[in-house]
TrEMBL record:
Compartments where located: Secreted, Extracellular space
InterPro entries listed in its UniProt record: Peptidase_S8/S53_dom_sf, S53_propep, Sedolisin_dom, Tripeptidyl-peptidase_I
Domain of life according to the entry: Eukaryota
Name of the featured protein: Subtilisin-like protein
Species name: Mycena albidolilacea
Length: 610
């Protein structure tokens, strides 16, 4: 099945899930009051979503005569707006077949949602569902839904992506969790898992190797990263931080004073989403890591924007908050409509956005799949406008990130069970994102040698259960499957799924300033901002040459034109689920992707394109 076919199918899952338990984190409380009113929302199927991949390849495939000719946001909005046929089909079913008075049905201004206020009894009759009241196990809040599923008529289901409230209970399964990891021996007493380097020993780093302490100079040497901005203020890059993941300017100055003196006194430009505030108390590990690496590599000539996304209430996913802030039309097509979202398309979009978080396991689950598929489609639409979105691939190897959960035949996620199948993570497995895995300098090796996949934690990688393999990675992935994949049973992983990561970069042991001292830190959450800085530098060169930003880079990276732009990582693996995971191999592999970047070669390859 083509990628766009699956996206368009987006769950007309309408036929429901029977005898399913309540979603994780929620407890069934009681049957809902039949006379209670609920706002029922029908998210309408977008037009031309089956052509999204074709539209993207037309501007992102190096062989296309239209390479780099990105779309305007207005063109994107108009192209994917639900058709009049879709609107009238759903409205007609509600009024003619279901007997809902036309005055009760409202179409949102964007034309993406039909909504109506009905009683629980009316909703149950309309959807052939049973509604219950559920309690959030963490904060005790309640909401209504129908975890057993719902049904739509065949002629209607293809015009509806989601009905809410139904099976989607909102909020990520893993709330704004940092995607990083370090050796277990270094975890004690620190939420970030970093091990402290006493400040008085910092001078000794100059004499230690990059296999024991990775500094900015190590990264420059590893990736041939000699960069001075030349495009001025036109080029932009952003990093997304969520909830109470914050930074302190004093930590930035401590870091810059030692490793990048021309950045002392500089801080990122705040783009607050839903009131996100980086000055509140919270964890300083993730934000410090991201900001120091990007600003340290790019220097004062390139501004960094900070998307500080507030921790949402339980019914919202932070991903939806960020996407809605960038694209106002998404406020109405997100799984819960615009409930609780106030920033709708009023935040500037940077050319590159780095995300070092994960929010859901990549499961073919009716309570997750339609939501993440719609989010991924929105990401694809954003890349049409010339944005590159980069995400960490996770630190759980072939299992679900740090929780190391695998999928049992019963459909339950469980850690430490040898019968579990591999589980990826989102948003990294969305094909419109560039997913980044982690590497390390081999013990005793120099920066002239190719790194190995990190052994201090298993770098995330594998195959999606939600998205089929896109055409642009067919050749590279099939080569791996034909020649290097272990002899696993067919049920262990989805061989036809989107494969990731796409690339990799160093993930351990990086030196950063955090909490007033220097620490070793890392994870794929370090690898993502490193690679994001590389792409921002590529954009700088293209803009200076009068060319467009690179936008959706995956088709180009996998093409022959970029064959020499990566250092091919061939050592390492990413174990999980009590299996060895996948071994690194020549060419692309599900541990290190295409390899680590050689900036000069990557820049020149992109400069050679129109």
């Amino acid at each position: 099945m083509a990628l766009t076919q699956l996206l368009v199918a987006l769950v007309a899952f309408a036929i429901g899930v029977h005898s399913a338990p309540p979603p994780a984190g929620w407890s069934l409380h009681r049957r809902a009051d039949p006379d209670a009113l609920i706002p029922l929302k029908f998210s309408l199927a977008q037009s031309n979503l089956d052509k999204l991949e074709t539209f993207l390849l037309d501007i992102a495939d190096p062989r296309s005569p239209n390479y780099g000719q990105h779309w305007s946001p207005a063109r994107v909005k108009e192209t994917f707006r639900p058709s009049q046929e879709t609107i009238e089909t759903v409205r007609g079913w509600l009024t003619q077949d279901a007997g809902i008075h036309a005055d009760k049905i409202r179409l949102t201004p964007s034309g993406d949602i039909l909504q109506l206020d009905v009683t629980i009894a009316e909703a149950e009759s309309l959807l052939r569902a049973e509604y219950y009241v559920y309690s959030d196990d963490e904060d005790g809040s309640v909401r209504v839904g129908c975890h057993d599923g719902y049904t739509l008529p065949d002629h209607v289901s293809k015009h509806v992506d989601l009905v809410w409230p139904t099976v989607h209970f909102g909020g990520p399964r893993s709330i704004s969790r940092r995607s990083e990891s370090v050796p277990p021996s270094s975890r004690f007493g620190r939420e970030s898992g970093a091990s402290t380097i006493p400040i008085e020993n910092l001078a000794a780093l100059a004499e230690s190797g990059c296999d024991t302490s990775v500094t900015l100079d190590c990264l420059r040497e590893l990736y041939n990263f000699d960069f001075t901005p030349v495009s001025g203020d036109v080029n932009t890059i952003g990093v997304a931080e969520f909830g109470a993941n914050v930074y302190r300017p004093s930590d930035l100055n401590l870091f810059f004073n030692s490793f990048r003196t021309d950045q002392v006194g500089h801080t990122p430009t705040l783009i607050s989403v839903e009131g996100g505030d980086p000055t509140v108390s919270g964890s300083v590990g993730e934000s410090s890591l991201d900001i120091e690496l990007i600003m340290g590599l790019l220097g004062p000539g390139q501004n960094l924007s900070l998307y500080q996304v507030a921790q949402p209430k339980a019914s919202l996913d932070p991903t939806d908050e960020l996407l809605a802030a960038l694209d106002g039309s998404y406020c109405s097509v997100s799984p819960v409509g615009n409930e609780g979202i106030t920033d709708c398309g009023n935040k500037p979009a940077t050319n590159v956005i780095s995300i070092s978080y994960h929010f859901n396991p990549d499961l073919n689950d009716p309570s997750i799949s339609p939501v993440v598929q719609r989010q991924c489609a929105e990401i694809g639409k954003l890349t049409l406008t010339g944005i590159t979105i980069i995400a960490s691939s996770g630190d759980g190897g072939v299992a679900y990130s740090q929780s190391h959960e695998c999928l049992l035949p019963s459909g339950v996620l469980s850690a430490g069970n040898p019968n579990g199948s591999f589980v990826g993570q989102l948003p990294a497995s969305c094909p419109f994102i560039t997913a980044v895995g982690s590497t390390s300098v081999s013990p005793g090796a120099s920066t002239d040698q190719v790194e190995e996949s990190t052994t201090d934690f298993p770098s995330g990688g594998g195959f999606s259960n939600n998205f089929p393999r896109p055409a642009w990675q067919d050749s590279a992935v099939q080569n791996y499957l034909d020649n290097f994949v272990p002899d696993y049973a067919a049920s262990v992983f989805n061989r036809s799924g989107r494969a990731y990561p796409d690339v990799s970069a160093n993930g351990w042991p990086l030196v950063i300033a955090e909490g007033g001292g220097f620490v070793h830190s890392g994870g794929t959450s370090a690898s993502a901002p490193i690679f994001a800085a590389v792409i921002a530098a590529v954009n700088d060169a293209r803009i200076a040459a009068g060319k467009s930003t690179v936008g959706f880079i995956n088709p180009a990276l996998y093409s022959d034109a970029f064959a020499g732009a990566f250092n091919d990582v061939q050592v390492g693996s990413n174990p999980g689920c009590q299996k060895q995971g996948f071994p690194a191999a020549p060419g692309w592999d599900p541990v290190s992707g295409l390899g680590t970047p050689n900036f000069a070669k990557l820049r020149d390859a992109f400069l050679a394109l129109p």
